[in-house]
Design a protein that fits this description.
Blueprint (H helix, E strand, L loop, with lengths): L4 H20 L2 E2 L5 E2 L1 H12 L3 E2 H8 L3 H13 L3 E6 L2 E9 L1 H24 L4 H25 L4
Antiparallel strand pairs: 1-2, 3-5, 4-5
Length: 155
């Protein structure tokens, strides 16, 4: 029996909802603090470019400078990030990870490795072929969804 497209779309919706639940749950990445997705991704971005400024970080994360400033304030309070002044321009603030921030960044990386391993174990045959099929389907779905949003079919 052929599965209907509607059934497949319902399944996709369920998978997306479960992934969102995983992504939106705060986690302890080894520091004793529960961190939300936006927090740990900010930590990760600062870890990639030590000394990054607010403006550049906002561009990297695709959010406003105000949103980054608020996030950085939270991360400073949690002891994950430290603000320093740019030696070349004392008006610019640079951001670096504290030792605790580096623990969180490393814990986040380990979390992703564990997630990847779970997926690899779930597809034991040829993960590379499965991955390529998923990439093809998701790229096409991304294009289709973009078209739907453009023409107003998202509501």
């Amino acid at each position: 029996m052929k599965t209907s497209l509607r059934h497949t779309m319902d399944l996709m919706s369920r998978v997306v909802q479960r992934m969102a639940a995983i992504e939106n749950s705060p986690r302890d990445f080894g520091t004793g603090d529960l961190l939300f997705r936006a927090e740990i991704h900010t930590v990760e971005a600062i870890g990639r470019i030590p000394g990054v400024g607010i403006t550049e970080l906002a561009g990297m994360l695709g959010v406003t400078k105000g949103a980054v400033s608020q996030m950085v304030k939270k991360l400073v309070q949690k002891g994950l990030v430290r603000r320093t002044l740019d030696p070349a321009n004392a008006r610019l603030v640079c951001l670096i990870l504290t030792p605790t921030g580096r623990v969180a960044r490393d814990g986040h990386e380990a979390f992703h490795h564990r997630m990847e391993q779970v997926v690899r174990d779930g597809f034991p045959d040829d993960i590379d072929a499965v991955n390529e099929r998923f990439r093809t389907v998701f790229n096409e779905l991304d294009r289709i969804l973009d078209d739907m949003i453009t023409v107003g079919l998202s509501a």
